[in-house]
């Protein structure tokens, strides 16, 4: 899986991480190579473009640290972006929803994608790993022997299949499966629908009719990972017509270029839940975006090195800031750093809760309607100030206030609110600083 892409990318980053200092052009050259590598792996153009852009922006905004090289930091950024592209905001594969027995799972996909094999692989997992009683039914009335194929697989893995009644329609088989699963107390029943060579209306109509009968908890699309962007197109079509809950990418054991995996989530918004890694009935794995990103880059050591360094920097920054507070220093730059930290921590309750005496203020701030949007606006206001003004906001005159508010696309009243908050916080810091001299804050800092 991903061997070629992995080789290409590690080549790029091996060179990059060996350099001490990095110029902008070093980074752009590397990113150009990343772009080519992704496109050659058959990742879609728009996904590739967004990927490179995101890395570029993050690389430009990164803080410089002594303990890791810029190249190593770029590796970490690329790694995080890979995880993001593979997973969206969820980093762990969701379990299949198989509560409320009997839970129907609808398997859809084109002929030859590996649908029947995958049905059996998942049934085996569900019964062996999760201890579920599973019933499988083939709804394929088109392909001769398709129903027998599933029955044979069922015998191999010790999972029941619905008895075959010749001449029944797909919808009738689905109804019978539902009935049987309910009567006989199965936890899960899996419906293996018929595939076609291409998407056509008849196929979609049939799948829709089956879906309406079964009301599936999961509708899994099986696509051949070797088909690259075609796999993504198929997923978009199926999702538009029947609605899918996830994707299984098969043949990821081959020397496919991996593009399907990288584009799937970004293009369709649907998660890859499993990958098929061979013909054997246990050759299936959950899709873990973190692990896959790690495998693609092959630079796990660097990623964890940078993670550690970042933690240290954050701790150092916090300590530096605390020292300033102890001296009663708190200017607009400090406030900006605080606001940014809050955004990162997803709210201010947590951060203020950690500071002695700030609990009450956190409440007030929250009541004042503090949220991410407000935080972003306040940072924008501070950014519109000059260096001098940030260090000493008292010098702000009415005309400058107007300009600053305008620069941030806001009103002067917004700026006044910010200035008031800054004054209150500065006062608070001064008081805390004095307490600190008597040892209280030192104690609190440990
Ligand atoms: P269906 O027409 O979609 O039901 O496809 P089948 O399940 O009959 O699979 C078609 C062929 O692909 C069979 O020979 C399977 O053994 C093979 N196959 C399915 N999944 C995988 C996989 O993940 N890797 C490999 N190498 N072969 C697979």
How would you summarize this macromolecular structure in one to three sentences?
This protein has 446 residues and is an alpha/beta fold.
How many structural domains are formed by the residues? 3
Task: Tell me which CATH architecture of the largest domain applies here.
Answer: 3-Layer(aba) Sandwich
Total beta-strand segments = 8
The end-to-end distance, rounded to whole angstroms, is: 48 Å
Order of strands in the sheet with most strands: 3-2-4-1-5-6-7-8
Task: Give an overview of the whole structure.
This protein is α/β, with parallel strands linked by helices and 446 residues long. It has three domains: 3-91, Four Helix Bundle (Hemerythrin (Met), subunit A); 103-287, Rossmann fold; 327-445, Orthogonal Bundle (434 Repressor (Amino-terminal Domain)). 60% of the residues lie in helices and 9% in strands. It has 20 helices and eight strands. The protein has helices at residues 3-18, 24-40, 45-60, 70-87, 115-128, 146-157, 170-183, 201-214, 229-241, 259-268, 289-297, 300-326, 332-345, 348-353, 359-367, 372-383, 387-391, 398-407, 412-437, 440-445; strands at residues 103-109, 134-138, 160-161, 188-192, 218-224, 246-250, 272-276, 284-286. Strand 7 (272-276) and strand 8 form a beta hairpin. It is elongated. Mean pLDDT is 84; it is low at 439-446.
Q: Features of this protein?
A:
single chain; alpha/beta; Four Helix Bundle (Hemerythrin (Met), subunit A); Rossmann fold; 8-stranded mixed beta sheet; elongated; disordered C terminus; binds guanosine-5'-diphosphate
């Amino acid at each position: 899986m991903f061997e070629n892409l992995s080789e290409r990318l590690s080549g790029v980053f091996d060179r990059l991480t060996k350099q001490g200092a990095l110029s902008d052009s070093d980074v752009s050259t590397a990113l150009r190579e990343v772009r080519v590598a992704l496109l050659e792996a058959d990742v879609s153009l728009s996904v590739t473009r967004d990927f490179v852009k995101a890395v570029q922006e993050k690389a430009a905004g990164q803080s410089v640290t002594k303990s890791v090289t810029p190249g190593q930091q770029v590796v970490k950024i690329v790694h995080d972006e890979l995880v993001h592209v593979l997973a969206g905001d969820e980093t762990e594969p969701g379990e299949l929803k198989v509560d409320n027995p009997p839970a129907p799972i609808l398997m859809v996909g084109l002929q030859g994608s590996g649908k029947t094999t995958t049905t059996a692989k998942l049934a085996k997992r569900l019964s062996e790993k999760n201890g579920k009683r599973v019933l499988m039914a083939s709804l394929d009335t088109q392909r001769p022997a398709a129903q027998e194929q599933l029955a044979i697989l069922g015998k191999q893995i010790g999972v029941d299949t619905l008895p075959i009644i010749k001449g029944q329609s797909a919808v009738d088989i689905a109804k019978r499966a539902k009935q049987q699963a309910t009567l006989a107390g199965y936890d899960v029943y899996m419906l293996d629908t018929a595939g076609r060579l291409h998407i056509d209306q008849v196929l979609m109509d049939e799948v829709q009719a089956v879906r309406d009968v079964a009301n599936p908890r999961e509708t899994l699309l099986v696509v051949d990972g070797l088909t690259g962007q075609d796999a993504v197109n198929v997923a978009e079509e199926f999702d538009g017509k029947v609605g899918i809950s996830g994707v299984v990418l098969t043949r990821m054991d081959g020397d496919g270029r991996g593009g399907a995996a990288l584009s799937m989530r970004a293009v369709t918004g649907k998660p890859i839940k499993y990958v098929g890694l061979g013909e054997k009935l246990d050759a299936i794995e959950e899709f873990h975006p973190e692990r896959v990103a790690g495998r693609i880059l092959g630079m796990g050591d660097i990623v964890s090195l940078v993670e550690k360094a970042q933690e240290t920097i954050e701790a150092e920054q916090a300590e530096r800031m605390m020292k300033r507070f102890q001296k009663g220093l708190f200017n607009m730059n400090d406030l900006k750093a605080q606001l940014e930290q809050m955004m990162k921590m997803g709210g201010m309750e947590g951060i203020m809760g950690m500071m002695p005496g700030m609990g009450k203020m956190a409440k007030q701030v929250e009541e004042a309607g503090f949220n991410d949007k407000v935080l972003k606006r306040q940072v924008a206001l501070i950014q519109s100030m000059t260096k001098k003004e940030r260090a000493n906001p008292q010098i702000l005159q009415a005309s400058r206030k107007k300009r600053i508010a305008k620069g941030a696309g806001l009103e002067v009243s917004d700026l006044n609110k910010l200035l008031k908050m800054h004054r209150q916080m500065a006062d608070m810091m001064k008081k805390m600083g004095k307490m600190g001299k008597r040892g209280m804050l030192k104690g609190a800092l440990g």
